[in-house]
Write a structure and sequence with these properties.
Layout: E1 5-10, H1 12-20, H2 22-30, E2 37-40, H3 43-53, E3 65-66, E4 74-76, H4 78-90, H5 100-108, E5 110-111, E6 120-121, H6 127-153, E7 157-162
Antiparallel strand pairs: 1-2, 1-7, 3-4, 4-7, 5-6
Helix pairs in contact: 3-5, 4-6
């Protein structure tokens, strides 16, 4: 099963209003469109470990507090959004490339039968496949950087979830 990632940017007040009503939170969060929403396919699964490897103090995919009451959503506060935006802007995508193979292995390593006593299956990625991921991931990094810069400029929160 593939999980897609979504990010929205919104005011802290609107985030808190959505958070306050769990019965409508998912519908309201998923109704965001246009520049307030960044839909990621598989990319978020690689960005998380790449940003951890690069030492991001605020990782848009692994940091935060419960954002809205569904699907393990995580929210960054405006000060965290500003820090994430600054870190993304000062860190060229090329910094992440040496860690891409490791991020792919982290994403795709599985335990047989999902049992901690069972063997681990660790995938391998030839250079041409890593290069293919690099070339497809780089433009999404630019999209993510612009998304976070806009959110920071507007004093907004972000909410990330995967479904």
């Amino acid at each position: 099963m593939s999980m897609l990632g979504d990010l929205i940017r919104l005011s802290p007040e609107l985030r808190d209003e959505i958070r306050a009503d769990p019965s409508t939170a998912y519908d309201r969060a998923t109704s965001f469109d246009g520049p307030e929403r960044l839909e990621l396919d598989w990319e978020w699964k690689l960005f998380g470990p790449l940003f951890t490897a690069a030492g991001f103090r605020v990782n848009p995919f692994r940091s935060g507090s419960p954002g809205v009451p569904f699907s393990g959503a995580l929210s960054l506060e405006p000060n965290e959004v500003a820090e994430a935006a600054a870190t993304l802007e000062k860190t060229p995508f090329a910094v992440h490339v040496p860690h891409l193979r490791g991020a792919l292995v982290e994403r795709d390593t599985v335990r047989v039968d999902h049992d901690y006593e069972s063997p681990v299956v660790t995938p391998t990625f030839p250079d041409d496949e890593v290069e293919s991921y690099r070339s497809r991931l780089a433009p999404r990094y630019d999209d993510l950087t612009a998304f976070y810069r806009t959110a920071a400029d507007h004093g907004e929160c972000t909410v990330f979830w995967a479904a």
